[in-house]
Amino acid sequence: MRDAREIARLLAGRAPELARELLPGGHREGAEWRAGGLDGSRGKSLGVRLYGSKAGIWQDFATGVGGDALDLVRLARCGGDVKAALEWARSWLGLSNDPRPARAQVAPPPSRRADDEERDAEQEQRIAKARAIFAAAEQRLAGTPAALYLAARGIDLAALGRQPRALRFHPGLWVPEARRNYPAMIAAITADDGRMIGVHRTFVSQNDKGVWAKAPLISPKMSLGRVAGGAIRLWRGASAVPLAAARPNETLILGEGIETCLSAVLAAPEYRALCAVNLANMKAIDLPAAISTIVILADNDAPGSPADNALRAAAERFAAQGRTVKIARSPLGLRSDMNDLLRAE
Fold first, then answer.
1. How many CB atoms lie under 10 A from the CB of residue 279?
2. Whole-angstrom Cα distance, residue 125 to residue 112?
3. How confident is the model at residue 43 (pLDDT cuts 50, 70, 90)?
């Protein structure tokens, strides 16, 4: 009988097929399959690695649960029963209980080079689509639903004197989840070399009170293109120069969400501000040596939670680079952020 480790390895070799089988409501994002949870619903909180040395490894960031490909079978299909998971996996892989190899029944994985080329081509297509969306969006936010959405969150762009150039407004983008178009605030995601590699979309609609708010979707915020290592360059601070030309000993505000970062910019417009899009990406951002101090905006997640661990990992990486790292938290309590504080004031 094949042991659990070998079964997990064979499952990982067919991770794309396995993810679609176990999580049918999910979707592919780069090298991951994203779903709302182990029930296979739509969403993004659970990610399964599809390729490379970590293929089959998964994590549900909403619950903190994760594991290998066999664990995914066990929890998503077999109610946590290890024996049932092994039986299901053997059947799905086309293996018998015979201890001798049954390699002829297992589809050979594509060559690493062909696989890499396919993924690179798909990513370039997504980046091209992201750039096209940004180019088609309206440059001026004033008077648009995007500006009204931010105003409802307590963020008055007019108070800053100028609009962040990374933000634009699109009057209607197709949302597969709702099978209709929604207006959206568009934000450019930029790599450390200044190239635009993706967009972040915040879909908005008017609620029953006539206020512009996040659209009633499972995922009202979505990214397209590449996020890893990129950031939304929201504000240049007092220096007003591009990030690559940052002045020596500059202070940078770094947060997860656009609204959180803009709330901090309203309070301290003299500082440069970047949005990391998500906490997992925060530690992957490369910054010029001129940035000597980083103020990380924390969302007051529970200590030891995946979000809190990701934030601390980012802080440790920047501190190891010889930078001064400060963590700013809202005093309003658990799960609150700087935008909650702004609106409370």
1. 23
2. 20
3. confident
Phi, psi of 81 (to 5 degrees): -80, 115
Question: Looking at residue 338, what is its pLDDT?
Answer: 64
Q: Which of 189, 228, 221, 223 is nearest to 202 (CA)?
A: 221
The CATH classification of domain 4-109, taken from the options 3.20.20.70, 3.30.70.1120, 3.90.580.10, 3.40.50.720: 3.90.580.10
State the pLDDT at residue 107: 44
What are the pLDDT digits (tens) for 251-303?
999 999 999 999 999 999 999 999 999 888 999 999 999 999 999 998 877 78
The encoded tokens of residue 207 equal 């609620």
SS3 content of the chain, % helix, strand, coil (to 5): 35, 25, 40
- Compute the Cα dihedral for 308, 313, 318, 320 and give only its sign: positive
Alpha carbons within 13 angstroms on the beta-carbon side of residue 62 total 10
Q: For 157-194, what is each residue's pLDDT tens digit?
A: 999 888 999 999 999 999 888 889 999 999 999 999 99
Residue with tokens 């949870």: 37
Indicate the DSSP class of residue 43: S
Predicted local confidence at residue 25, as pLDDT: 84
Q: By CB neighbour count within 10 A (0-12 exposed, 13-18 middle, 19+ buried), where does 182 fall?
A: buried
* Residue-range domain boundaries for the chain: 4-109, 136-226, 227-345
Which are the contacts of 75, defined by CB distance < 8 A and separation ≥ 6? Answer: 38, 65, 67
User: CATH: 3.40.50, 2.160.20, 2.30.30, 3.40.1360. Which one for 227-345?
Assistant: 3.40.1360
Rounded to whole angstroms, the maximal C-alpha distance in the chain is 73
CB-CB contact of 332 with 341 (8 Å): yes
Burial class (CB in 10 A: 0-12, 13-18, 19+), 245: exposed
Of 225, 174, 239, the closest CA to residue 196 belongs to 225
Instruction: List all residues 6 or more positions away from 105 whose beta carbon is below 8 Å from its beta carbon.
Output: 93, 94, 95
